[in-house]
Structure prediction request, 299 residues.
Amino acid sequence: MSKVLVIGSINMDLVVETSQFPAPGETILGRQFRTFPGGKGANQAVAASRLGAQVTLIGCVGNDAFGRELVAHLGREGIDTRHVRIDERASTGVAAITVCQAENSIVVAPGANHALAPDDLHAAHAAFAAADVVLCQLEIPLATVEAAAALAADHGTPFLLNPAPAVPLSESLLDRVTLLTPNEHELGIVLGKPDDDWIGLLRRHPQRILMTRGAEGAWFADSSGQVRHQAAFAVEAIDTTGAGDTFNGALAAFWGMDLPDLARHACAAGALSVTKAGAQSGMPTKAELEEFLNKKNRS
Prediction:
């Protein structure tokens, strides 16, 4: 399995289950409140670790109860947290999540995640040299993402970027991305071509973009420019929080596979993750994923 270096956010998710989403200005009663470890960086690190990868995480938390709890939790998941810095001025990031009938709405307060700086990456340069793949997202400062891509390039390490939340990305950053993993909405935004059709965008970037469309699966263009589809796996969804992060963590964990097999494993892992509540708590193990795929192969 891969040696994965994840650079990204670490949050505590504050989750309320409701029977309906509140309208602007409306107060409603929720059914249940729970806390879950989250943040796209931490989520993807946990997903990769559970699928058998050797994972190192670079991130930042506050010097508070949430921060201490999250770092301890990541350690229990088998993740190397020596490069998770504790910031004395910012609070640990939180995400307020409303879950309604397996769908969710999310508001993120980044906190210490926005204190993660390029200097933090340079201090961990040896981790870039040791990694088989570097995985990053956009819940940390864009300058830090750009520094991560540059360091990965300096060490000849593939750079996997999940561009969420979506912002336009510079050509210099895009040129350093080995595989970009947007959803359909994010694709045009990050490429600076929001009015172009997604099929055309995929064809112009063969084997460099793997685009997701939720329950429909994933698409990419092969080396000949032909757009190929990996269908999603049918499951009974309980909570979709973290499905995309599971998808990306699986890509990193199985990085040595070719793109069609990568897409299949990632779609299967993402499907399994929605069958349980919580972002990280629903993420499958390698054994669970293998059993799931073996059943699909026999059916």
